[in-house]
Amino acid sequence: MYNNQNGSGSQNQSGNQQGAMVPEAKQALNNMKYEIANELGINLKQGYNGDLPSRQAGYIGGYMVKRLIEQAERQMAGK
Fold this sequence. Notes:
Oligomer: single chain
Number of helices: 2
Shape: globular
Strand content: under 5%
C-alpha cells in the first residue's frame, strides 16, 4: 500500500501509483488527453479505448507530459 500525503493511495503490481496525486486535477488531465488526441488526429472515444494501438496511446501520453513540463517551466519562470 502506498501512502501519499493524506495517507491514502494504492500501487499496482509494478509499483506505479494509480490515479492523480491531486484528485481535483483528474478532470483537467482527462480534458487535456482528449484535446491532445484531437490535435494529433487520433479518434479517442469516451470510456474504454482498449482497441487503441499502444503507439497512439503513447503519442497522447508523451504529448501530455511535454505540455505539462512546458506549463511547469512557464510557472517557474513567473510567466
